[in-house]
Amino acid sequence: MRRGKASVRTMAATAIGVLVLAGCQHGADDGPRVAPPLSGLDLQGNPQDIAELAGEVVVVNAWASWCGPCRDEMPVLEAAQDAHGDDGLHVLGINTRDRTDAAQDLVAETGVSFPSVVDTEGTLAVEWGISGMPQTFVVDRDGTIAAHRFGAVDQDWIDSVIVPLVHGTSVSEEEEP
Amino acid sequence: MRRVLAWSVAVAIGIFAILGLWSAATDSGPVSAEDTAREVSQSLRCPTCAGESIADSSALLSDAMRRTVEQQVRQGRSAHEIQAWFAERYGDEVLLAPPHTGYGWLLWAAPVALVGAAVVVLLVRGGPANRRRWTGLLALAATTLVGVWLLVPRAGAPVPQGMQQEGAGPVDTLPILRDAVDHAPGNAGLRLAFAGALEEAGKDAEAVKAYAAATRLRPLDPDTRYRHAFALVRSGEPRAAREVLEESLRVRQDHAPSLLLLGALVHGEDPDRASALLQQFVQLAPEHPAADQVTAFLEGGLGQMPAEVLP
């Protein structure tokens, strides 16, 4: 009887050990994700490729003309690029599942100058793991995703996340959707 | 004890033989790229749906994910590689079956480990009668579990290179549906199927016309009206979509998808009305996949509309 109790205790301890080890392994797999490729024609038909911006901080913003919050955040992104472009900040949009004419109208209306790669089928958005819009990723100078924003960006986020990255202070922010 | 062991071994051999025969019978040789893409799509969860695979979901995100799966299959990636690719982007939650890594291993190994543990406990604590009765049953259960466990990873087999060019691309159902609609113009169900196929093919303007026709046939059906409105938004006609939805809500005030879409559409111009509509939506459909995000949106903590709200 005593032997039986000891076996149960041993098995329980083993189970806990396996759980802990599995947890450690899971944690070891996590880490900064290398930014996926992003290339294609923009809304004006010019080729764009994030690879050409290697070594810079790139804000990748997924948007569509039918998305209200996307409309609201475009001037914020444009202002960030204006303010920090000389220090190596670039904004590159992904115009997802949109009509090109409607997207061009929105660009004209908001006056943004950053290019957006056209993603008619939505596969570029899938490549970046996007499940809703707007979503914004920040790719650091090493080419890894340093921050991921679900929802519209605002000036506070630009100041707390983008500015330190541009000026060399490391930051890591992965939000939950 | 020896007799029990002999029976256990015999039962185990029998089960493996049956599993082997079943496996051989269901294995039709090298599969096409289309079959593999379908199989992988069935293993991936639609991130914006409630428990649907991307193969079965009509969400636009699922459509894009299916296209990505097809591209990767054509590039020669194995099912496991594609699943890992999606898990890296959308988390392990995107896998309908638990992964063979991290905590996922526990889900696969736990049943076998539990059976093993039960055997040990029985041998240590059970009386002779219990041992005889349960050992055979446990051997049977363990063998079945191991057999299933061994068979499941078959989905990860790489796509045979020689077959990748065959059967690529979905069957073009548009001409078939167009003919069917021409022969039965009063069939609203056919009109809806045709409209859906047009949407899938990216023919938004034509899809709107087909949905409009279906709406005329089913003027009081809020689901048909909702799909019509959805197509109107996609084709750049949000005002027309709003009119369709306003009419829908006059017919049926508690149609949650219409409340959600109309709330999203009027958000820019009339935030108060949008809030009222979205709150009503959350109250009516708290289990809806978008409900949490809409709640966060209403509370101002999330400036993001869920993907399925708008096309």
TrEMBL record, chain A:
The keyword Endoplasmic reticulum does not apply. SUPFAM superfamilies: Thioredoxin-like. Keywords: Cytochrome c-type biogenesis, Disulfide bond, Redox-active center, Signal, Signal-anchor, Transmembrane. Coiled coil: none annotated. Gene3D superfamilies: Glutaredoxin. Residues 1-27 form the signal peptide. It is found in: Cell envelope. It comes from the Bacteria. InterPro entries: Redoxin, Thioredoxin-like_sf, Thioredoxin_domain, Thioredoxin_ResA/DsbE_sf. PROSITE patterns: PROKAR_LIPOPROTEIN, THIOREDOXIN_2. Residues 29-167 form the Thioredoxin domain. Transmembrane segments: none annotated. CDD domains: TlpA_like_family. PANTHER family: THIOL:DISULFIDE INTERCHANGE PROTEIN DSBE. This is Alkyl hydroperoxide reductase. It comes from Citricoccus zhacaiensis.
From TrEMBL, chain B:
It comes from the Bacteria. The chain crosses the membrane at residues 105-124, 136-152. Residues 33-125 form the CcmH/CycL/Ccl2/NrfF N-terminal domain. Keywords: Cytochrome c-type biogenesis, Heme, Iron, Membrane, Metal-binding, Signal, Transmembrane, Transmembrane helix. SUPFAM superfamilies: TPR-like. The keyword Metal-binding applies. Pfam families: CcmH. Possible subunit of a heme lyase. Belongs to the CcmH/CycL/Ccl2/NrfF family. This is Cytochrome c-type biogenesis protein. The lineage of its organism: Bacteria, Bacillati, Actinomycetota, Actinomycetes, Micrococcales.
